[in-house]
Amino acid sequence: MRRVRSSQPKIGGALATSLARGSSGPRRGKTYPVAETHLIGNERLYLNQCIDSNWISSKGPSVDKFERAFAHEAGCEYAVACASGTVALHLVLAALGIGPNDEVVVPAFT
Q: Which residue of 33, 43, 56, 79 could cross-link 70, Cys pair, CB 3.0 to 4.6 Å?
């Protein structure tokens, strides 16, 4: 993993503050990277196209194109892009008809 040191937060890069905030010790006041953004291709171009077209929500030409390409690669007719894993899981449960009083076995840690 490449480490990036910067006093400025990166766009899209999340930083978590020390879990030991307010305590004394070696971790006080430090931050730890949770995610790093790597824009190595046409990402900036695609983001600007979305902003310029005013399609910055969960729908639009880029999302439609992604869903079609993903469905093709997966060998199915349709695919649905979701904004989060929680939304994806909710859709799966609804599609399977799972509802109140149904039992779903899941791992204790995800």
A: 79
Structure tokens at 76: 């199915």
Check: CB of residue 98 under 8 Å from CB of residue 104. Answer: yes
Write out the DSSP string of 29-92. T-EEES------SSHHHHHHHHHHHT--SS-SHHHHHHHHHHHHHHTSS-----SSHHHHHHHH
pLDDT in tens, 51-105: 898 887 778 888 889 999 999 999 999 999 998 888 998 999 999 999 999 998 8
Global pTM reads 0.54
- Contact between 32 and 18 under an 8 Å Cβ cutoff? The reply is yes
Token pair recorded at residue 101: 């009083």
